[in-house]
Amino acid sequence: MNEVEKILEAFGTKVVEDLRKSLSDKLQAKAAFYQSKYKGASPNPGESALGASIKYRVVDSADGIKLNVYLNDYWEAVDTGRKPAGVSQGARIDKWIKSRNLIPGFQTNNLKDRLKRQAENKTNRKKKVLKVMKFSEAVKAMDFLVRRKLKDKGYWGIHFFDEVVNDGRQEQLTKDIAAAMKKDIEIIIKTNRYEET
Fold this sequence. Notes:
Number of helices: 8
Shape: rod-shaped
Low-confidence stretches: none
Number of domains: 2
Radius of gyration: 26 Å
């Protein structure tokens, strides 16, 4: 492995580490913003499928050595946010809801809200005994609410990617590679000179 490849390997490792940390920190901050709404939610929302998907690979191609950083295809929506728009039926919002353990808090809040409305309703009729919504019904209800919010309001991005990638490290990488290439070329020249004698 030459010096340039070593630099790219170190750079790739550091970028992946910093992107995962930035994503985790930003997701936790966003979750803290909403935490009071659904108690019992995932204690570490920063552990995400997107974070696990962040990887790099140094590729030697016809165009030269490249460093590719890979993320799940929705990373840009997480980074920059989403304008209000409908959500495709294929979107697995229910899976996201379950992975965040939001249902127990949702069920509790839903029951409290229904009990409050029932208490405020001044009628002479016998009041119905209200129970906690079934898990499957709660998932469907929350799925509907999330889809409606995305359609009406979208969501704000957390800017985990730009913060890491645009912090000056690319400029430093360029300088490091230039110095390494000079060193590699000097080694090649010295090696070739000694072979001729």
